[in-house]
Structure formats: structure tokens, C-alpha cells
Amino acid sequence: MILDLAGISSFTDFFVICSATSEPQLKAIANEIEMRLKEDHGLRASAVDGFPASQWIVLDYLEVVIHIFHRDKRGFYSLEDLWGDAPRVAWEATASARGFGASGAFTPNSSTSKIKIALGGIAPWPLGP
Q1: Of 3, 13, 55, 63, which has the fewest beta carbons less than 10 angstroms from its beta carbon?
Q2: Rounded to an integer, what distance in angstroms lies between the CA atom of residue 59 and that of residue 71?
Q3: What is this structure's pTM?
Q4: Residue 70: which of 33, 19, 121 has the closest Cα?
Q5: Which domains occur in the chain, in start order?
Q6: Phi and psi at residue 14, in whole multiples of 5°?
């Protein structure tokens, strides 16, 4: 899920919230995001917090903060409800030629297109409604 916080937050423009079903998957998602953004776009997180055993990892790219939760922790913290007044941003998925499965590119709508992030071979699912 992608939340547009540009009009309601002073510290970031977007939250990307995704779920993992295990601690190894949580670590793999975080590592893949960091690697793809570094290799494909030259971007490094300004801060990384959490670790797989905490079941919540946060990657802070300033304009975009990525929250990777174990699905149980995601339900407990419920950032989607906490930031319920934030508009949801549509996710555009494309086919991957790298064999990773679904690939996606995050493109905010035209009124908020400040940033584009390619997430390589990972799709932020299951995200829920």
C-alpha cells in the first residue's frame, strides 16, 4: 500500500507499507529494496531501523519511507488506520524479464509526481485493502 502524505506530513511525502510472512522474507524484501534502489537509481536510505527479529524494518529515503512488517505486526500497528486521512496511491505493475516474478514501478498521480521508485523484482504484496 502506498499512502500520499505530502499534504498532511512534514517529514515525508509517501509511505510504502508492505508485509512479509516470515522473518527471512522480511529481511529479503528489505535487502532487495535497498539493493535495487542503490544499483538501479543510485539511492541509499538516509536511515534504516529495525531488524527481522523485531518484525518491522523501516527504510527512510526522506521523500519516501518504506515500512516492511511481519503481517502480524502490521495489523497491530495499523499505519493505514493511523494515517487514514492520507490518500492511497495506485500501484502500477509490469512484467519482469529478470525472472523475479512481478515487477513494479511506483508512480504517484500527476498532481504529486515528485518521485519515482522502481522496486525491481519485488511486489509489495500481500498488502490488503
Answers
A1: 63
A2: 17
A3: 0.72
A4: 19
A5: 2-88 (3.30.460.10)
A6: -140, 145
Residue, of 114 and 5, whose pLDDT is higher: 5
Cell readout for 9 is 506530513
CA-closest candidate to residue 54, choices 83, 34, 76, 81: 76
Contacts of 68 (CB under 8 A, 6+ apart): 18, 19, 20, 26, 29, 30, 33, 56, 57, 58, 59
Q: Integer distance in angstroms from the first to the last C-alpha of the chain?
A: 8
User: What pLDDT sits at residue 89?
Assistant: 84
Beta bridge partners of 47: 60
Q: Which range scores top for mean pLDDT: 54-68, 77-91, 104-118?
A: 54-68
What pLDDT score was predicted for residue 91? 67
Calculate the alpha carbon distances from 69 to 44, 57, 118 in Å.
Answer: 20, 7, 20
Q: Could you please report the per-residue DSSP string of 65-98?
A: EEEEEEHHHHHHH-HHHHTTTSPB---EEE--SS
